């Protein structure tokens, strides 16, 4: 992994770090790189993953942002050695297929979560099916999301969803401020499940669907499933092992 391509967020701290690292290690082109070293926060890492899905090389993040769950500690020394000893985690994204009232269709990937949100003062009214079988006829809520294990510590956790170990082979289905059924707290689904959302009263109660950074408004139907054919590799220092950190998050107050 000696041919390194550095990618940095537009923030001042990330750009200054980019300049220093390029002076020390040089910078390979994207087409010849053995590894992408990403400088920024989790948001920039997600943008980078989406932008370079087809490259087939691993990603090593160093935190130059406010949030860095997917990132390693920023350190300029011995980068080549750290890349050689880093552990590897493979992420499989969710694929969202969304259909709008006007007949338009959109397909997008999400490494964190796919979420449905109310667009107006009216709560959303959503029917939920799993593998073609209706499980919940009417969820009256602000929204609902499906999260990957890697994304389970992000908005899913803020919405009181479960933290999922990376090796759990499951997805989290989590309501956002449910009004009815008031006590429904979501479900844990096998990773191969297909989740379908049908938006009821869509014109009166409009809903948008978001897959990481891709949004479609006024949706009437959304399906979500994991795409096992796509796998992106992230590298982590031994002391920043992502699986251990996801597990540790469950014990934090």
Notes on the protein architecture:
By secondary structure, the protein is α+β, with helices and mostly antiparallel strands. The protein has two domains: 108 residues, Rossmann fold (3-Layer(aba) Sandwich); 133 residues, Sandwich (Tumour Suppressor Smad4). Helices cover 17% and strands 41% of the residues. It has five helices and 16 strands. Strands 5, 6, 7, 8, 9, 10, 11, 12, 13, 14 and 15 form an eleven-stranded antiparallel β-sheet that branches. The protein has a five-stranded mixed β-sheet with strand order 1-2-3-16-4, sandwiched between helices. The longest helix has 14 residues. The radius of gyration is 20 Å and the shape is elongated. It starts with a strand and ends with a helix.
Largest sheet: 11 strands, antiparallel
Helix-strand category: alpha+beta
**Architecture of the largest domain, CATH level 2?**
Sandwich
As for the CATH topology of the largest domain, it is Tumour Suppressor Smad4
Mean pLDDT: 92
Low-confidence stretches: none
CATH superfamily of the largest domain: Probable inorganic polyphosphate/atp-NAD kinase, domain 2
Total strand count, please? 16
The dominant shape is elongated
Percentage of residues assigned to helices: 10-25%
Instruction: Supply Rg.
Output: 20 Å
Determine the number of helices (DSSP H or I, runs of at least 4 residues): 5
| Tally of separate domains | 2
First-to-last CA distance: 38 Å
Element order, helices and strands? EHEHEHEEEEEEHEEEEEEEH
Overall CATH class of the largest domain: Mainly Beta
Q: Into which percentage range does the β-strand content fall?
A: 35-45%
């Amino acid at each position: 992994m000696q041919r390194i391509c550095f990618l940095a967020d537009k923030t001042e701290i990330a750009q200054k770090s980019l300049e220093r690292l390029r002076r020390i290690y040089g910078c390979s082109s994207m087409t010849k790189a053995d590894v992408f070293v990403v400088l920024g926060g989790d948001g920039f890492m997600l943008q980078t993953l989406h932008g370079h899905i087809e490259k087939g090389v691993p990603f090593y993040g160093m935190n130059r942002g406010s949030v860095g769950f997917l990132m390693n500690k920023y350190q300029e020394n011995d980068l080549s050695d750290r890349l050689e000893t880093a552990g590897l985690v493979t992420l499989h994204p969710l694929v969202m297929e969304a259909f709008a009232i006007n007949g338009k269709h959109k397909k997008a990937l999400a490494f964190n979560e796919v979420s449905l949100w109310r667009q107006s003062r009216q709560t959303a009214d959503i029917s939920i099916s799993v593998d073609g079988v209706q499980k919940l006829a009417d969820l009256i809520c602000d929204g609902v999301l499906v999260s990957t294990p890697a994304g389970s510590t992000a908005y899913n956790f803020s919405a009181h969803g479960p933290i999922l170990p990376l090796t759990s082979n499951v997805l989290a289905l989590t309501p956002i401020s449910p009004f009815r059924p008031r006590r429904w707290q979501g479900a844990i689904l096998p990773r191969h499940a297909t989740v379908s959302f049908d938006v009821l009263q869509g014109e009166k109660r409009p809903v948008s669907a978001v897959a990481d950074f891709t949004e479609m408004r006024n949706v009437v139907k959304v399906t979500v499933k994991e795409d096992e054919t796509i796998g992106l590799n992230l590298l982590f220092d031994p002391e920043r092992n992502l699986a251990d950190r996801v597990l540790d998050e469950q014990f934090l107050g």
